[in-house]
Amino acid sequence: MPYAAWEPEHAPDWHRALDAWYVDSRGLLTQSYADNTRRLIANISDCDRFVSTGVRSRGSTGESLFVRLLTSAVSTEDFADQARNLLEQIHIHARDRLTASYLAGLAAGGQDIDWIEWFKTRIARWPPDQPGTRRAKTEFNHPAFREKLERLPTYWIS
User: Fold this and answer.
1) What are the pLDDT digits (tens) for 71-128?
2) How far apart, in whole angstroms, are the C-alpha atoms of residue 133 and residue 13?
3) 13 to each of 22, 101, 152, how far by Cα in Å?
């Protein structure tokens, strides 16, 4: 692979390096989400094949077993729904964190950006019962949180 603009000594300035890092990171995040979504769809399709087989094999014991599986307290649909919702939330959290890091980098470079307020607004949209939501809210209370995100690699600014 050729060097990326965000790697040491491959961008003319910190801003272009930060932009390149953000674009590449977003691309990787989107690719990961797409790959995980494809796997989830394959699992859902497997469940549909199971349903199709169950409907077609209508023996007296097979049908009652099939109906019991569909109506059980924890059905395959529940697992699929939980997996889909979790996948979406993980992606949203990662995307928002990535964007917060980018905006914090711009602030570190001297631009007037209130990335903290932007990130708080994004977090407020996340489901409150998610571990990622609780983690983000806890991080905001840590004194070094802003300082940790508002920094640029020294090789971008030297």
Assistant:
1) 765 666 777 888 889 999 999 999 999 999 999 999 999 999 999 999 999 999 999 9
2) 34
3) 15, 18, 11
Category of 9 on φ-ψ map: left (φ > 0), alpha (ψ -120 to 50) or beta: left
DSSP character string of 50-68 = HHHHHHH---HHHHHHHHH
What amino acid is encoded at 26 in this protein?
A: R
How many whole angstroms separate alpha carbon 121 and alpha carbon 46? 38
One-letter amino acid at 103 equals: L
| Cα–Cα distance for residue pair 155/14, rounded to 1 Å | 9
Whether pTM exceeds 0.85: no
Q: CA-CA distance, 82 to 80, in Å (whole number)?
A: 5
